[in-house]
Amino acid sequence: GEDHDGIIELPADAPVGTAFPDYAGLNDAVIDISVTPNRQDCMGVRGIARDLAAAGLGMLKPLAVAPVAGEGEAPNVRTDDPAGCPAFYAQNVSGLTNGEAPEWMRRRLTAIGQKPISALVDITNYISIDLGRPL
Prior knowledge:
Shape: extended
Distance between the termini: 27 Å
């Protein structure tokens, strides 16, 4: 966390001699990327993966999103420039109970410098960073 003075107290059962990144699960590879202003498509993880796949470095997995059936009245959405924004979708969501995000998501967000807050906020941040688009 950011509220310590440089000393992290570990539990008594922490293995002696193990490197802290291995113990804490913080040994993921780090990729540092500088994005120029003309490459907004690379502001998200998926955009970077698409660019690497186009250069022959790996393969881009298809983004498979199953449709979610809605019930009730849909939000009123309009675009003032149909040529510039040919599609915009919205879905009403209600009856949710917010809580803590799953551990795997909190770890991934923390690894990229995001502070986990709650499931709904963390899901929004996770998708935004993945697709490079604010929600």
